[in-house]
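Re: folding output
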Amino acid sequence: MRAYLIPVALAAGLALAPAAFAAQTATGMIKSIDAKNHTVTLDNGTAYTLPTSFKQNGLKVGEKVSINWDMKAGKHQATTVTAVK
């Protein structure tokens, strides 16, 4: 019985490991947008770096947004920014 537990536990750990690295989500009001540096800062003070291919699509200061992001090189890297109604 014990011979089966270790491989099963290892398989379960490996199967669940990618979920730990999944993107995170933040929601808040846009405090500032810096188009030159490709960043958006929310009202909580956290700045998110936008991809260079990001299209602003009418986002403006004071608008409530949801940002999906990953931590890369010590920075909050946004993958998507969506207006919340």
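--- second protein (sequence, then structure) ---
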Amino acid sequence: MNADPGPTEKKGQPGLVSAALSGLCPRCGAETLFEAPAGLAETCANCGLDIVSLERGGRFVGVVTMLLALVLILAAMGVDEWLRPPIWASLVFWAPVTVGTVIFGLRFYKTMWVYHQYEESQQP
């Protein structure tokens, strides 16, 4: 029996998407995981968890960003071929969509990685 259940095993614990959007610490659940929109904090201000040590090995951020860029480029090309919007409309639409998608994708990936590393560090 696991003495310290991970975040996915606690009843009422938010899912990974909610944790990524809110920046929840894997240990205490406080909203202290991120200092910047997609930048992890060094430590949790609430419980003192060393987040930087959990983030080691999560160096595939560039790959995640490139995959998101590929999906967004293909989507933009498809929309351009289908609707033929003016260039200003494309810029007005795709600029915030790109920024939002990349920030959410990075937050989701980093949260997933930190939660995974935290659960691995809690194994006996």
